[in-house]
Design brief:
The complex is a heterodimer. Chain A is of the alpha+beta class. Helices cover 51% and strands 15% of the residues of chain A. Chain A contains 14 helices and 17 strands. Chain B is built from nine helices and two strands. In chain B, helix 2 packs antiparallel against helix 6. Classes of the chains: A alpha+beta, B mainly alpha. The interface between A and B is large, with 60 and 49 residues.
Chain lengths: 613, 288
């Protein structure tokens, strides 16, 4: 019957319109929901199987406005942007920690060198010694603060990294759940719910921010996800757990790994190379030996590093047999105490006399700057062990007492300096305090003697090694280690233990005040000699810290701009336009009114028909 | 046709407002601190340069301290050396008189007493110039690559000590001389020959041809002392120049920053006002 059909048709229209209005209302409600895609009802006329004629209208499907291309672009850009932003945060912190270029540790180091300059100029002025200690203390404190704060940043990064890995695993689980939902939708003959697809895309976007991932969307709308390093995260409806040790290839995780392996890395004291050697030398109590070899690696002799200027109370017989000597890396002069050494012997019966020698080891070779004796009746001379290659021929070179500063009296070359550690390999009698004695007067040329367990070959400079890591933290530590070792070499005590008493050790009893002040000034001048390198290092660090931050900011800015553009494009496709929704509502309202009118007319027709009966 | 989504307007506004506020904060920071570079990233090209130049100003400060010290030491040295020169001149005049045979033994004895007093004064000044020498050639760096002495060199000090000894032998009475073989006068200035010897020694010491002579020594250290003002003057100009460059690199141009602040403020206000207007515009408003 026509009237009944019209009513049926109108009722389908009312239902479809109402659903469409619901969808529109949902669009308006979610206009500001992040990641929401505008949904639309696909309305179609209902067709009965095989029959012709009008059957009404129905909702064929509810779809979302989305572009897979744009979603992929969003993910790619988000990965890079998140990485840059995460790096930027930490680089900004490092930049702020370093402060103004002419403040902080650079200023403290300048203060230290100014104090050293005071001592070099007026070694007799004891007030400057306290000033020097204060300036050393300041450098130490400021470095400690920087070290702690940088360590704090590293700890933050480690904690954040754990959080990121945990979140990646949560997202993988959630994506597996979404896949299950989508499969259910599709499996029951329908289409994947727009809400589930939005959820899937939002999870993928968040995941992309955390790490660079490869996303494969299946025909049914489910996704398989793995990291760029090949670790599976989501396969169908099951999720895998990302190992905590997995290296991030991008995004926040990539940034954190980059920071933890680069910028926030530091050279540990156990690392190989010169830094390790310096650390060992400045902390070890004894048993550290310098070994000098020629250019072919032939071991010429070994010498124990003398720490400080503590006199030894040894018998004359022991003096004959002490294996002791000196060698110094770099151009920094070092004070060494020698007591009747076999390597450097004092002519005449001088057992018990204390010899102070300064020597240096540089690119020209091993140079003895001076040898001075506390025994004024003795003119010291240097005897080189057999096998020593020297630029001048005499086996014994007399050296005047208290020679003038500056001109090396002897140069030996070409040697390479290796630092080796061995534990009393020849069964020497341990005299304590790091000194050993032998029971015979055998030749002390150890060129043919085996050295057990040489642990370190140190050729490159500590700072250079640190700078190779391109890490601000490691570089700062390199500068600080250099500072520490310079102080140690100059004054024979670590920066932690140095006191005015250590500085007063220069004033050796019996040697005469004149030479003592000369030694203080020489130590200070030795420190000043290393100054330009420290200054150059600090300048380099300062420039690089800023440059990294600015470069990263520029990348962030570009990526932000790209991201804004892509978000805008997405909004054009998937966003909710209020005007559009308002127009749709007007249209649906009118459709609803029309359908209602049909019901009204049909009803009237039905009433009229009934009345006529 | 471009679809304008609802939250696009808000996102754009938020981004722009954030940028404007950040610019405003930057201007405010510069205005507050007076510095354009408060951290390396503010200008990574200028930052290392600022550090380098600031360090070189620290060097200049140290050089100034060293120079002041050298000036003080050289001033004393030249003063004392000059006084030794004066004393030698007195001795010379005395020797000229003493070597004149017309004076009586009594007169020569009186002149010897004067010579002894003069020698005491000379020894006093020698002791004074030797102070702080510490037995080494002490120098201090007063500018890049330039050193200046801050004490007598060991050689000069030795020469003065020799002078003191030699004058002592020529002036002072020595009872041991009487028992020497062959015996020599206990009072060397009791004879004309003695005064002649002293005159010869003093003349030699005052000769401008002798590097170790007290007079030449005085001139040599005096010349170094004269360098102080020149070095200070040169450095003054260099320091001003360095300070100017550092200031240009580091400090904010307050005028420009103030203008930038006003501009950023206006931009922020305009953004806020335009957003307030746009956010109310929707077809829904007309459907009421």
């Amino acid at each position: 019957m026509a009237g009944i059909s019209a009513l049926n048709i109108a009722s389908t229209a009312l239902a479809a319109t109402r659903t469409a209005m619901d969808i529109s209302a949902n669009n308006v409600a979610n206009a500001s929901t992040p990641g929401y895609s505008r949904q639309r009802a696909i309305i179609g006329d209902l067709v009965k199987g095989g029959g012709a004629g009008a059957n009404g209208v129905g909702i064929e499907s509810i779809r979302r406005n989305a572009s897979e291309l744009i979603e992929r672009q969003r993910r790619t850009t988000s990965t890079s942007l998140a990485q840059a932003q995460s790096l930027g945060g930490y680089l900004g912190s490092i930049d702020s920690l370093m402060g103004a270029p002419d403040e902080g540790i650079a200023k403290a180091l300048n203060g230290f060198y100014s104090s050293v300059n005071d001592i070099a100029r007026e070694p007799e002025n004891r007030a400057y010694r306290a000033g020097l200690l204060n300036s050393i203390s300041l450098v130490k404190d400021i470095y400690a603060q920087l070290d702690t704060r940088l360590g704090g940043l590293r700890d933050n990064a480690i904690a954040e990294r754990s959080g990121v890995v945990a979140r990646i695993n949560q997202i993988s689980e959630a994506l597996a759940g979404t896949n299950t939902g989508i499969e259910l939708n599709v499996g029951s003959g329908g289409e994947a719910s727009p809400t589930l697809l939005d959820q899937r895309d939002n999870l993928l976007l968040e995941l992309s921010k955390l790490n660079d991932v490869e996303v494969n969307i299946q025909n049914n709308g489910t996704v398989n996800v793995k990291t760029m390093t090949g670790a599976n995260l989501v396969t169908g409806t099951s999720a895998s757990i990302l190992a905590a040790t997995e290296i991030g290839s991008g995004g926040t995780l990539g940034a954190l790994d980059k920071l933890l392996k680069g910028e926030l890395a530091t050279v540990t004291p156990t690392a190989s190379g010169r830094l390790a050697a310096l650390n060992t030398l400045t902390t070890a109590s004894s048993n550290e030996f310098f070994e000098v070899t020629d250019a072919t690696g032939q071991r010429l002799y070994t010498r124990k590093l003398s720490v400080g200027l503590n006199p030894l109370d040894l018998s004359a017989a022991e003096h004959q047999n002490i294996v002791i000597g000196s060698a110094v890396a770099d151009n920094v002069q070092q004070r060494v105490s020698l007591i009747s050494p076999e390597g450097y012997t004092v002519s005449g019966a001088v057992a018990g006399a204390r010899i102070t020698a300064t020597a240096r080891f540089d690119t020209l070779g091993f140079s003895v700057d001076s040898v001075e004796s506390t025994d004024t009746s003795v003119t010291p001379s240097v005897n080189y062990p057999a096998g020593t290659v020297r630029t001048s021929s005499p086996a014994t070179t007399p050296i005047a007492k208290s020679p003038s500063l500056g001109t090396p009296v002897e140069t030996v070359q070409p040697y390479q300096l290796y630092v080796v550690r061995f534990n009393n390999p020849r069964g020497l009698t341990d005299l304590g305090n790091g000194y050993f004695a032998e029971t015979s007067n055998a030749d002390k040329d150890y060129s043919q003697s085996p050295v057990t367990n040489p642990v370190t070959v140190a050729e490159s400079g500590a700072r250079e090694a640190a700078f190779q890591t391109s890490s601000t933290w490691a570089r700062l530590r390199g500068v600080y280690e250099g500072f520490k070792s310079d102080v140690f070499r100059a004054f024979g005590s670590t920066v932690d233990n140095l006191t005015t008493a250590d500085l007063s050790e220069f004033e050796l009893p019996g040697a005469g005040g004149v030479t003592d002040y000369q030694l203080v000034a020489r130590a200070a001048n030795g420190l000043l000699a290393g100054r330009s390198r420290t200054e150059a290092d600090m300048t380099r660090i300062t420039g690089e810290v800023g440059q990294r931050k600015v470069s990263n900011d520029a990348i962030t800015k570009t990526l932000t701009s790209m991201s804004t553009q892509i978000e805008s494009e997405r909004a054009q496709v998937s966003g909710v336009s209020m005007d559009e929704e308002a127009l749709d509502l007007v249209r649906l309202q009118q459709a609803f009114a029309g359908a209602a009118k049909v019901v009204q007319v049909a009803n009237k027709m039905f009433d009229d028909l009934m009345a006529s009966i | 046709m471009t679809r304008v989504a609802f939250d696009n307007t808000y996102r754009t506004a938020t981004d722009q407002l954030g940028l404007a506020a950040s610019r405003l904060q930057n201007s405010q920071e510069q205005l507050g601190s007076g510095r354009r570079v408060t951290k390396s990233s503010d200008d990574p090209i200028a930052a290392p340069k600022i550090l380098q130049l600031s360090t070189s100003m620290v060097h200049m400060d140290e050089y100034d301290h060293n120079l002041n010290f050298a000036e003080e030491r050289l001033s004393k040295l030249t003063d004392h050396l000059s006084r030794i020169g004066d004393m030698l001149n007195n001795l010379k005049e005395l020797s000229v008189q003493g070597s004149n045979g017309t004076y009586s033994a009594q007169d020569r004895a009186a002149m010897r007493t004067t010579a002894e007093s003069t020698l005491d004064l000379i020894n006093g000044f020698i002791a004074a110039v030797g102070e702080g020498a510490l037995g080494v050639d002490r120098t201090t760096v007063v500018s890049d690559g330039t050193k200046m002495p801050i004490s007598l060199t060991a050689t000069d000090l030795a020469a003065l000590n020799t002078l003191s000894n030699d004058l002592g032998k020529l002036i002072r009475q020595n009872p041991a001389n009487a028992t020497a073989s062959p015996p020599s006068p206990v009072d060397p200035l009791s004879t004309v020959a003695g005064w002649n010897s002293l005159l010869t020694k003093v003349n030699a010491e005052m000769a401008l041809t002798s590097d170790s002579g007290a007079l030449v020594m005085s001139v040599r250290y005096g010349a170094q002392y004269q360098q102080v003002d020149k070095i200070r003057e040169t450095r003054g100009a260099l320091r001003l120049d360095t300070e100017r460059i550092v200031s240009n690199l580091r400090d904010a141009d307050m005028g420009s920053v103030a203008i930038a602040l006003a501009r950023d403020q206006s931009v922020l206000q305009a953004l806020q006002a335009s957003f307030a207007k746009i956010q109310g515009m929707s077809l829904f408003s007309f459907l009421r």
